[in-house]
Amino acid sequence: MGNIVAIVGRPNVGKSTLYNRLIGQRQSIVDDVSGVTRDRQYGLAEWNGKTFNVVDTGGFVKNSNDVFEKAIRSQVTIAIDEASAIIFMVDVTTGITDLDEEVTRMLRKTDKPVFLAVNKVDNHNRLLAANEFWSLGVAETFFLSSITGSGTGELLDAVVEVVNEDNEIEENVPKFAVLGQPNAGKSSLINALLGEERNIVTEIAGTTRDSIHSRYTKFDKDFYLIDTAGLRKKDKVHENLEFYSVMRAIRALEAADVCLVVIDGVAGLEAQDMNIIRLAQRRNKGVVLLINKWDLVKKETNTARDYEARVREKIAPFSDVDILFISALEKQRISKAVDLALKVHENRNKFISTSVLNDFLEEATIKLQPPAYRGKFIKIKYITQIRTYYPAFALFSNYPEHIKESYRLYLENQLRKKFDFRGVPISLFFRKK
Questions:
Q1: Three-state secondary structure along 276-290?
Q2: What SS3 string covers 356-371?
Q3: What is the bridge-based pairing of β-strands 212-216 and 223-227?
């Protein structure tokens, strides 16, 4: 089923406030002027031990009344196609509007789970008024106040029942997703690798067709390429291209082991690229950064070394990743990109025996001891790798809760140096001995 939950609804019903509550941080700029949610609206929510992606459609509608309704309709259509579940948000203070009724009609046609969230229900009179929303006929209807958070728990309990974290193709073949902003050159890279015009590439952002898994078996290599740029029904996407590409990117990222993040070398590393890298890191996916269109970058002002240093500085602390300068159109260094991705996949599946790890731990702690906590001597006694789909380690200590972040980073960096986890996020869990 996948695990993308999209929040849809009219402007100003409180979508962004709910989104911020779900992902637990104030990411978006929320203002009372219609349509000012201006940040990239996707992040990771965790509830009852399950994680899922939340996409807030609020950030994707530009303000103009005639475009609004059309844009919202197209968002709902995209959400019906691409999300695993949909939270449809309405506002008790305005009652049921024509647009709400129209969206409800659209949502009735899908067999995906739909949750109706009636927002701003924060006093007794509003609670009585909220009952009119049952007339929309959505079985899963919740009354909440996204500002105070009341009622969001019940909504989340219902949502996590329907999302899951399974990947579609469970083969032992590595799966690489090609991610990046529209026009960064994702399709050119895929065409160069597969050696056929898989996608019709033109210079208009977002003209690629569909998300496809292509099996690559040339030159003794074997992997799946997941192409994400997909645009199927051109008409409905036209004003919501960005929302659509974000939905596709998250889906591809979820299905992948390693993300090849294609960055437009001329434009440089932008906020949207950072979002993808951070999301890949939080989902424990491998990462390779490809700086594309390197043939077009003026080398006098931009040496590869300076460029790389700037990128590493931006992506810190997760900067132990390969950065490769390519030209997909000129087919420069694209086979090297594949080699790096395969190496990262290998690193992600690396398993280190407990005895080797404990020798490592002894060396690392002799070199630098954990800082004491209020005069208490902290000892890390034992380390072992946890069997999971990415590198994770359990470390046992007398005071696990007092180990400083700086020391955690020190141990992570030592592990990376010693065992080569380049391109792979690793997790350290400190536990009581």
A1: HHHHHHHCCCEEEEE
A2: HHHHHHHHHHHHCCCC
A3: antiparallel
Letter for the amino acid at 283? R
Task: Report the percent of the chain where pLDDT is more than 70.
Answer: 82
Q: How far apart are CA 332 and CA 11, in angstroms?
A: 45
Q: At what angle do helices 271-282 and 241-255 cross, to 10 degrees?
A: 30
Please give the single-letter amino acid code of residue 310: R
Is 158 in contact with 85 (CB distance < 8 Å)? no
Q: Per-residue pLDDT for 299 more than 80?
A: no
- Report d(CA 257, CA 174) in Å as an integer: 6
Smallest CA-to-CA distance from 332 within 408, 265, 271 is with 265
* Of the candidates 254, 199, 287, the residue with the CA atom closest to the CA atom of residue 4: 254
The candidate with the shortest Cα–Cα distance to 302, out of 330, 269, 260, is 269
Distance CA 239, CA 274 (A): 23
More confident residue, 94 or 222: 94
Q: With beta carbons less than 8 A apart as the criterion, state whether 342 and 173 touch.
A: no
Query: What's the rounded Cα separation, in Å, for the pair 77 and 103?
Result: 9
d(CA 317, CA 128): 50
Query: In whole angstroms, what is the distance from residue 40 CA to residue 26 CA?
Result: 12
Structure token digits, residue 427 = 């997790």
Q: Do residues 427 and 392 lie in contact, with contact meaning Cβ atoms separated by under 8 Å? A: yes
131 contacts: CB under 8 Å, gap ≥ 6: none
Structure token digits, residue 282: 């939080």
R_g over Cα of the chain: 24
Residue pair 113/162 in contact (Cβ under 8 Å)? The answer is yes
Q: What pLDDT score does 65 carry?
A: 57
